[in-house]
Write a structure and sequence with these properties.
426 residues, seven-stranded mixed β-sheet, alpha/beta
């Protein structure tokens, strides 16, 4: 029996019973049975280094022992698991620690809204609120943006394949060029400014501008601090609200807890999810400047806003951030990874590679369509799990847990290089 036959037998239930929409199982075709830290194991006992981290939802790795202990203790105590938006001690502690450990030290003042439990829920509530605050309908988003799969979030996302899946017109959004969209010689801010300043441009004054400081799905495109600051200045000039979508880049992925900390902007609304719970438990919040928190009671509601085990694990992750060395360690690992990738670029000039991203939200882009997918497939064969991204799948995306052991990080990077070298040999 060959390996492919074995894999097909393992996954036949998914082939027969699960929708064709399944995606990651096609990229990583095996039956995973165990996960710990930066590693996963499949049914055959094969070990994999995980540079995927649940698409950024497991920034602290799989089954972190401190988080696991806290959630097990909570469940064993018969405490409330589902509370909707009622009060519980777990929710109280989460709010207090978020404020004391994360927001106050960064001079951020936000009210916390609990939407549904996923990132797209956070974006939907942000879009809904800015329209309520301003009385305007239009949202400005940017080329190649990705903000979620529900209709409102999809309307401000640029990917054609995802948008086509909506089946209806996606309205009330104007797309402007992200930094670098027309090349390094064109300042895309001038387009935005001109459209808003010209009463005959056909562009209505928007309720908000929504942006990612690092466009993850678009191929790890990083906007410069200067460009983001100019966007904020435009928002202030025209009384437009600024939404930062930090769902993928937040919780330390970009090197700081919020990706915009080093940029020098003060968003009106911040969307956060993915690794907020730290344990893969669904949890999302929308951070709102107090003056814009004009919701009427229960004006926006949902059943799964109070899954308290996620509050418990999220609160425990905040303890990591009390120690400044934790953040410094993430940044050092990001720098080490970047140096390694830069060396690969120099070693394989024929591939015309480029390093992209920031912190441990980083990757390597090829000059040909599908390069990231090819590298991902070859890496999987070698026991390394990593994703691809970019409009043409041209980027191999590295999302190792931010607390990955140095030895495991190095081993994973060498497996990546082997996978890229295999592309040269083809």
């Amino acid at each position: 029996m060959n390996m492919q036959t074995s894999v097909n037998e393992q996954l036949h239930v998914f082939e027969e019973l699960e929708s064709e929409v399944r995606g990651y199982i096609r990229s990583f075709p095996t039956m995973f049975t165990k996960a710990l830290g930066s590693k996963m194991w499949d049914k055959e006992g094969r070990e994999y280094i995980d540079f995927f981290s649940g698409a950024g939802a497991l920034n602290y790795g799989h089954n972190h022992p401190l988080l696991k202990q806290k959630v097990l203790e909570y469940l064993q105590s018969d405490s409330v698991v589902l509370s909707l938006d009622m009060a519980t001690p777990a929710k109280e502690e989460f709010l207090q620690q978020l404020n004391e450990v994360i927001l106050k030290p960064r001079n951020l003042n936000y009210k916390v809204m609990f939407p549904g439990p996923t990132g797209t829920n956070s974006v939907e509530t942000a879009l809904k609120l800015v329209r309520k605050v301003t009385g305007r309908q239009t949202i400005i988003s940017f080329t190649n943006a990705y903000h979620g799969m529900t209709l409102g979030s999809l309307a401000v996302s640029g990917n054609a394949v995802s948008r086509k899946g909506a089946g209806v017109q996606l309205n009330n959004t104007i797309f402007m060029p992200y930094e670098g969209y027309f090349g390094d010689d064109v300042d895309s801010i001038t387009f935005l400014e001109k459209y808003l300043a010209d009463n005959s441009s056909g562009v209505e004054l928007p309720a908000a501008i929504i942006l990612e400081t690092i466009q993850g799905q678009a191929g790890l495109k990083v906007a410069s601090p200067e460009w983001i600051q100019k966007v904020e200045q435009i928002c202030r000039r025209y009384d437009i609200l600024l939404i930062i979508d930090d769902i993928q880049a937040g919780c330390g992925r970009a090197g700081t807890f919020f990706s915009f900390e080093t940029v020098g902007v003060d968003p009106d609304i911040v969307c956060l999810s993915k690794s907020l719970s730290g344990y893969g438990l669904p949890l999302a919040i929308t951070l709102i400047k107090p003056e814009y928190d004009i919701w009427a009671p229960a004006e926006h509601t949902g059943t799964f806003r109070g899954t308290t085990p996620a509050f418990v694990t999220a609160t425990e992750t905040f303890n990591f951030w009390k120690d400044p060395s934790f953040e410094k360690d993430i940044q050092q690992k990001g720098e080490k990874t970047r140096r390694f990738l830069n060396d690969i670029v120099e070693k394989y000039p024929t591939l015309q590679l480029e390093v992209r991203g920031r912190g441990l939200m980083i990757g390597i882009a090829g000059s040909v369509s599908g390069f990231g997918g090819k590298v991902s497939a070859k890496a999987f064969q070698r026991g390394l799990i990593l994703d691809k991204c970019g409009p043409d799948g041209e980027v191999a995306k590295l999302f190792p847990p931010v607390n990955t052991d140095e030895e495991v990080l190095e081993k994973g990077l060498h497996l990546l290089e082997e996978s890229i070298a295999a592309c040269v040999e083809e």
